[in-house]
Write a structure and sequence with these properties.
This protein is mainly α. The protein is 69% helix and 0% strand.
Amino acid sequence: MPLLRKRRSAPRSSAAVQRSRLINTARELLHTRRLTELTLSDVAAEAEVPKSSAYHYFTDIEDLYGHLLLILHREVQVALAAPLVGPFASWSEVVARLIERGVRHFAADPAAQQLLVDPAASPDLRLGVLKCDVALGGIFAQQIDSHFELPAVADQSGVFFRAVEIAALMFCLSFVDHGRITKGMMQEATRAANAYLGLYIPAKLPRRRAVASGSGAANP
């Protein structure tokens, strides 16, 4: 019986491997190709997965991109949630550091930049990013609250989500004009996001006494 169970599970295991290979290959191809250029057939050929199998796992390239988008966005969340080295003079400096960290992440990952920032992404993909960005708003609030005593904010989730989208719009405009996120537009994103948050958060907040000035495990 154990042998029979192994034989039955083998096709499922093979399918999972092929799906992962297709997703990883698409990510690699997006380092040198535009997302609007690729087809699922292109990815299948590069991944050495039968085209019929690729279309069994994914409806089309948009379907595959949707799965890859979730992976890439989760990586952004992990990067932004990593502890920040302080001290910070104000909560707005925390926001600036997070935005800078995000820009560095996108610069190092062309696939993430195309799927999460590039306005060429389809409306369905953009909607997928918006849904995921709610988590980023929560991370911004948590990072500020770890260094300062963040007061209660009405509709806090919505406020921080909109601040993230304001910064994301600046990223998008920079991508349209320059094909990348420039330092100038990163600064614009910071100013715009902080200006919006400043409508809800006092300019000066009490520091968290338990926050150390630095930590070996923290990231810049």
